[in-house]
Design brief:
The complex is a heterodimer of chains A (360) and B (508). By secondary structure, chain A is of the alpha/beta class. Chain A is built from eleven helices and 18 strands. In chain A, the strands form two sheets. In chain A, strands 1, 2, 3, 4, 5, 6, 7, 8 and 9 form a nine-stranded mixed sheet that branches. The chains are: A alpha/beta (360), B alpha/beta (508). At the A-B interface, helix 7, helix 8, strand 18 and helix 10 of A face helix 3 and helix 11 of B.
Chain lengths: 360, 508
Amino acid sequence: MPGVSDIVWSERDTTPGAIEAALRAMLKERHAENASYVPARTLNLVCVVDREWSGEIANRLRRVGRYHAGRTIVCSVQPRRTSLDAVATIAADVAPRPGEFALLRETVVVEVGEQHLTHLESVVDPLVVTDLPTVVWSPHGHPEAVRALLALAQVVLLDSIDEPDPRDGLRRAAELTDDAYVVDLAWLRSTPWRERVAATFDPPHLRAELQTITAVTVRHEPASGAAALLLIGWLASRLEWAPGPLMTHDGGALVGSAHGRRQDVRLRLEPDPGLDVRGLAGLTLETASGRWLSLDRGPGGLHAHYRNAKGDERRWTVLGASRGESGILGEGIRQSFLRDPTYGPALTAANALAGASAQA
Amino acid sequence: MTVAEAPNPLVEGLERLPVHPTTLVIFGAAGDLAKRKLLPALYNLAHEGALPERFNLIGVSRGEMPDGEFRSMAIDAVRQFSRRPPDEQVLEKLFASSRYVTGTFDDPAAYGALQAALDEFDSDANQRLNRCFYLSTAPQFFPVIVEQLGQAGLNRLEGAEVRVIIEKPFGTTLAEAVTLNHVVLGTFRERQVFRIDHYLGKETVQNLMALRFANGMFEPLWNRNYIDHVQITAAEDIGIGSRAGYYDAAGALRDLIQNHMMQLLCHVAMEPPVDFSANEVRNEKVKVLHSIPEPTPADIAAMAVRAQYASGTVGGEEVPGYLAEEGVPADSNTETFAAVRLEVDNWRWAGVPFYLRTGKRLARKVTEIAVTLKPVPHLGFVQDGSVGVRPNQLILTMQPNEGVSLSLAAKIPGARMRIRPVNMEFLYGTTFVSQSPEAYERLIMDAMRGDATLFTRNDEVEAQWRICDPIVTSWEATPGPLPQYAAGSQGPAEIASIMHGDDAWRTI
């Protein structure tokens, strides 16, 4: 979405120092024009993208709504480039109203070559706003660039379902947790599911039943196996199950078990070809007492189906709007300010389930 | 450890904690507050997946309306007033099973119908759902509804929680507040009662506690040794609009000072609570209120000022005076502006005046707390040729530009040592990506969860009234006409009379 008033600066064969000076000059110009324009100072978002796919990433970033970074630095990678070109934009979404301020957001697109990636921090460091959290997002791989940027970033945003093999995605996330706080979009996709399972067992008389879960089935979009593994990993880590590696079974499902305190828990991950968006399609839990709960994605929220040992059944909808992919990305940016203590243990358990050691 | 005490290990790390399945009953469900605030708040909670997994809504009001018409009204209200465009599927499902009970609030038959609807929801869910009664009616119905709920046995439910949310105003005098508390606590226990002061649901007010108690730099200065005075301002540029009926009976002091602004004062002046649980926070606020001396009739002229807006110019437009507003009696003595000076007589604040002012049709809309520090003990700088050194001020702005500003003295660039004040600004809007939820969203969730931290306790309400009641009584006994101030101005000139020494009101 273009701003109501953008200032644009560009230069070929430029330097980080020149870009930074241009940003400062543009901010000063904007402020002198109207003191109600103030720069957003939320966080720095550094994106490393392949140039040929940069348009798609730009579209995703435009749609994150209110969760824009204050300063976005896009490193657009061209294989044989040897010099830096840059375009810097300062934009306000709205004109300031009397007595109020209008936020300015800064975007810098730097064309870099592959040769720059191993020392990308030397390009980016002068461009980030000092003392703001810095988040790195590299949706097209480029692990060497991420490694270089860890020198100045505190948070890595990734989507562990981006890798074709879930084991690779989870292993990569585990490697990065040693050096930065990882915000995993696959994990955020499981939030409503985790909230609902927690709520189901929250009434005090049902909490003890958490220890009697005997089977868990997670249905997922075929490419979103990592999200399903993280959800089961979460249950395993919170309920102190000892998970073993899952094995491929009929129809591409992964099946296996975890050792619970009282009994083994049967685990099953089923690809659901009917789901055409990333993430989870459904979840079924069974307990030793005969309780059976199923949650499935549906219009207006999650459709719940409950049955007890006597065979009494109930169905209802747990209300909630789909956040969509741009909503998930926006949520990822927001989560950069927070620290979820349950992701790390869930990731470790998910790696164990996937048969991939969390060790690099 | 009993089964009931077993922890739920799955809630660790979740931002939204589970809320027990609940049926919410809104009395006055066809009213303005329900349409503008409550129903949109429910929708936004549903949109975010924050409502309990089993949630039902029952509207109660006097007008005849079938369930379907109530659902349509609720959906229309959300479409018109929600802070985000609704997702039609969520919207449809939210109200799909909503019920409507017709009846006057003193009619036992209405409560019988309500009981039947509540039982039906419990039966459908095959469990006892918590019940939350939201009294969004004219205040004269609060005691009536509470008593009827008690007589119908709806104030308790074995195996579930029953809660009552009571809108403001909680009484219009101390006597009324005491009587209402007596009625309410004759039917419900205090832990079941949630008295709304929607200011407390605002992020900005909660940020006040974070600013004070999560930053080590302020607390050493936060006392009579360093603070000269405190000004709390809630100014509006608009008039009374279509609220003449309510406003002319209430006035500025009752409308804002007795509740919202007293709460702001408490947040500024309270001691650090042991923890941020409902009772610990409220205990500290009540201590502040108890430290404020009750004004005597002789004090009032020197510590309180009232006025009415006259015609004037706002935003370049000519606007009428209060007495010319539609629905306002020509001889009304209701104040549209009120200012008071209060003292908090305790170890921390003795001698520090707290100035509170509020008004309609002022120069601009702003709600802020200005903490003025004492001047430096010795001025070695030449004061000529510049504005000079001014005492530092910490400004906490609640609206419209939520943030914190600290005025500092700085050298003007140049050959000579000339000083002028500069501002160090922090704006929440530039720093956080999240959009603040509406106060009602937060408060409805907290009430359903049973967390009373952001609600006013019985002794707190009465302590607020104990301070304001003598002023109300004195003003009601004093004939008009009231001092006037031009619409769009800084308020009446008389406001300077309640300031101590060299203290001066900040420009609105």
